[in-house]
Records
---
Amino acid sequence: MGAKSAIEQLEDLISDLEGKLNLAPGADPAVAAGKKQQQQKQQKKKEKKQAAKQKNAGKAKGGAAAPVDPNLPDICKLEFKVGVITKAWVHPDADKLYCEEIDCGEEQPRQIASGLRAHYSLDEMQGQRLLVVANLKAKNLVGFKSFGMVLCAAEKNEDGTEKVEFVEPPADAPLGEIVTFEGLPSPTPFSASQVEKKKIFAACMGGMKTNDKCEGTFNGAVFMTTAGPCKA
């Protein structure tokens, strides 16, 4: 057999390349590549649709969130968590404020500012166990962002001054435990935005008092943990 001409060799190379690229003889490689990209796009769309269907199916299976009881007391819409101050310091720009880091059993300690410098020394603040109102909107207090509020009981003295004390959980109450209220439904905490919009904390302030046993109460319902009542 004689040697192949240059044209025959070129045709052989083209046939070999077509085979490697899975092209039909004489097909345009650019058109084939375009078709492949189109197929990949269609496959991705199909996968996205399937994922969306599975997500929607999961939502349908889980059902809608249970409606909130319209008779739920406002206090049960708040979230009071057991916490302990792990670090406290004087606010550099406010005469009445302490800044605190409080362990509430969460991933990170909460930073909260409290106007307690007239009532507690810095040493007394360190390691103090307390209750944190956890579902309040964060507020900037003289440049310090405060994520919640500590709960205290206040009483007027005869000389017109005020006595302020922390409402403390029992020593054995675990950090992060959510306080319940004796005789009331289990708490169903609202979002911070709902609490602010509906002024829920303000609505509860008049009903929060201590009883003759120094227990924190809301309209007589005692603030409870699994280890017992909270006291001031």
---
Amino acid sequence: MTQKPMTPGKPLRFSVIRVPFFLEPDYPQDFEETNRVRLTRKWGGEAGWNAQKARHGLKERGEEVGIERFDLDRIASNTMASHRLVQWITRTKGPTASEALYDLLNQRHFVEGRKLNDPEMLADAAEQSAGVSREEALDFIQSGEGEDKIAAATRMLRQMGVHSIPTFIVDGRYQVSGAARSDEFVRLFRDLERSRDIKGTTLFAEALGVPEEVLDQGIEIAV
């Protein structure tokens, strides 16, 4: 769509907003447990958890793209601080920077087992990936700024009936739920490109305080 558009000279442009979603919305700020304990509890015991792993095949799908392991004993915690940080970087540095931060946080948490409520880890990741100083990121994390925006987006998700992730909302109209493979998105994007019926709607920008000029930047895709 961007490299090989159906209409020469008219590629599609993409903006992506990461919308905050809480897997455990009732976690207190200081609550922690291992992911293994969390998932065993969530799926009603070892048998239920093993059945869920078999259905999703996330380990195998990770291996397909070079992820050798997920740390099952990583610490699950309240993720408000990490959500706030990603949204702050989106608003101030743009979606390309926030995607870089999001990717690094995924590496830190899922592979390395780092905690997403650790201000020091979050600030280091922001400095490494998003072009802000560690001190500036720490000041933001400790300020509590942006919690109202996270709450507003969470209310919108509930009103839309979104109860699980990943859920992708494309052009403000089309929902793709679950860990869909790339060909499903290619089909949807090509259908939109073919029809030229593109609204350019981003549902969550106002609630999350993302300015129009930030949306217009799009995302720089490495090739």
